[in-house]
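Input set for joint prediction.
Command: fold jointly, output C-alpha cells.
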Amino acid sequence: MTKRLGVLLSGRGSNFEALADSVDAGRIPDAEISVVVSNREGAPGIERARARNIAARVIPSKGLEREAFDRQVVALLQEHRVELVCLAGYMRLLSPYFVAAFPNRILNIHPSLLPAFPGLESQKQALEYGAKFAGCTVHFVDENLDAGPIILQAAVPVRDDDTEASLSQRILREEHRIYSEAVTLVLAGKFKITGRRVTRTET
Amino acid sequence: MTKRLGVLLSGRGSNFEALADSVDAGRIPDAEISVVVSNREGAPGIERARARNIAARVIPSKGLEREAFDRQVVALLQEHRVELVCLAGYMRLLSPYFVAAFPNRILNIHPSLLPAFPGLESQKQALEYGAKFAGCTVHFVDENLDAGPIILQAAVPVRDDDTEASLSQRILREEHRIYSEAVTLVLAGKFKITGRRVTRTET
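C-alpha cells >
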C-alpha cells in the first residue's frame, strides 16, 4: 500500500523538494506526496509542487485564529487521506487540535542540533555563539516550538571561515538526507518512543 | 621556555591525568604541570598528582566566601608562576577576582556540546532529552556556569543501547583528546577571539 504524505510549507520548501526527489528515487519506498499546503500566497514551494503534478493548495492564515486555520488544514489533509504530515519551512506553531489529529504523525526538520539554537536563524545563532559543531534535527511535532521527541540528527563541523551562507548550505545537505531517512523510518513503524527517546525496533 | 600549567580539581581528575599524559608524551609541547589544587580533602586527583611528583595542595573551600577562597588559590597559582589554569572536574564557579587574574588563561572542559546540557549530569540530560549526538566542549572560563568562548568541541553519536555509563565513556575519550589539543592551541597563542568566536591564526 502506498503511504500518503502531506507537506506544509510557507516558502521555498527546499526540504519538500528533497522529499519529493527521495520518493521519486525510491529512497522513501511505497510513498507519495499527496498534497502540499502553504499558509502564504506566493510561496515558491506551491509552484514547484504543481510543476511536479502534486496537488497544491494555499490556505491563507492571515487574520484567522490558530485553531480555526488548523481545522481547514486538517480537513484538507484528511480529504487527501494523508498518513504522515511533514513540515518543510512551515512558519507556524500547530494547535493542540492539529497535533491530536495526527498523533506521532507530524515531523519537522530544524537546522540545529536541538536543544541548541531553537527558533529563527539557527545557523546565525550557532556562528555567533562560536559553536564548533552545528547540524540539524528531525523531530516529532507537538504544540511547542522545536520540541517533541528527536528521530534523527546530523552533526556538521563549523569552519573558521564559515559564513551564515556556507554553514547553512553544509547543514542543508544533511537536512535533505536525514529528513528522507526519518520519513522512511516512521512510515515503516520501526521505532518506539520511551519518554523523549526515540529508538529503532526490528518490527 | 617551558609553559607552566596549574590544574584545579575536586575529585578524580581524569582530565588532569589525560593532560599529564599529554605533557609527558610531548603532545602538549614545552609545558609542565606545576601544581594541582583541590578544594576538597580526599580528592583522588591529589594522590595521583603526588604519584607523578607534581606539587599538589588541598585548600578547603568549605565555609569560605567565594572570593576569600579564590584569593588563596590565585596566590598559590601565582607562587608557582602558572600561565594557564585548567579546570578538571572543578565543582566551583570562579569569582570575578579569579577570572581577572588570568584573562583568557583559564580553560574548562564540559561533557556536552554547549550550549546544550550545561550543569551537572550532562550525559544523563542528553540521553533523557533523546539527543542523537552528544559530545564535549573546551571553553574559556568566565564567572558564569559553562559559558565563555568555545575553543574546541567534539561530537559523538548517541546509540540506541547507550546507558549513561557507555555514553560517558565515549565522550570521555574525546574529552581527553580535545583538552590536550585546546591547551596546545592556547599555549601557542595561535587564536583570536571575535565576539564569542574563537578562530585559529597562523602566528
